[in-house]
Design goal:
This protein is an alpha/beta fold. It has one domain: TIM Barrel (Alpha-Beta Barrel), CATH 3.20.20. The protein contains 4 helices and 10 strands, in the order ββββββαββαβαβα. The strands form 2 sheets. It has an 8-stranded mixed beta sheet with strand order 4-3-10-9-8-7-6-5. A two-stranded antiparallel sheet has the order 1-2. Strand 6, helix 1 and strand 7 form a beta-alpha-beta unit.
């Protein structure tokens, strides 16, 4: 996370990284990415309930009940070495209550583990909500990320968001199957 610098928000601990605004492609539209990463060394310290927080998997697992009860749903941020199956509950499904999205971090664009996590979430773990690629997300991989099930993309600063949008049309023919696109989640 070389592009993030930890900051503070009130008395809740270190949760608010200072982050350069990123372009976000979500449902085929350009937006400004307003989501913040919860950077906390203490897994029991929760960010404020003011919206748009990505919390690490261990914080979600340790505080899911409290986080689900919030006014503003959070997103879970999966690191490349996280096991997405840890999100399963009940009937071997991921309960979307209080969970706005799942984000998968790409610390380097050459790290392909996030592609596998996305495929698992979409094909075996039943996640139908928003799946976001964050981190070193560059124009060159946008098309491939979408083919693995991502439907939102936080574009690395310095990359042209318009080129990223055009990258979805980079190839018109595919030899392999892709995941079935999920329906929009309310």
């Amino acid at each position: 996370m070389s592009d993030l610098t930890p900051g503070t928000t009130g008395n809740t601990g270190e949760h608010a990284p200072v982050q350069e605004p990123r372009a976000l492609i979500r449902q085929g539209q350009l937006e400004t990415d307003i989501w913040r990463r919860c950077v906390s060394n203490e897994s029991t310290s929760l960010p404020p309930d003011d919206g748009h927080w990505l919390v690490p998997l261990d914080l979600w697992l340790g505080s899911a009940k409290e986080l689900r009860a919030r006014v503003h749903p959070v997103g879970v941020l999966l690191a490349p070495d996280d096991d997405p199956a840890e999100l399963l509950e009940g009937e071997a499904k991921i309960d979307p209550k209080g969970l706005a999205l799942i984000a998968i971090d790409f610390p380097l664009y050459t790290d392909g583990r996030g592609f596998s996590i996305a495929q698992l979430l979409r094909t075996r773990l039943g996640w139908e909500g928003e799946l976001r690629a964050v981190g070193d997300v560059i124009v060159d991989v946008i098309h491939y990320l979408a083919r693995c099930g991502f439907d939102s993309f936080s574009i690395k600063p310095g990359h042209d968001p318009q080129l990223a949008l055009a990258a979805f049309q980079a190839f018109s023919v595919h030899y392999q199957r892709t995941y079935p696109k999920p329906a929009a989640v309310a």
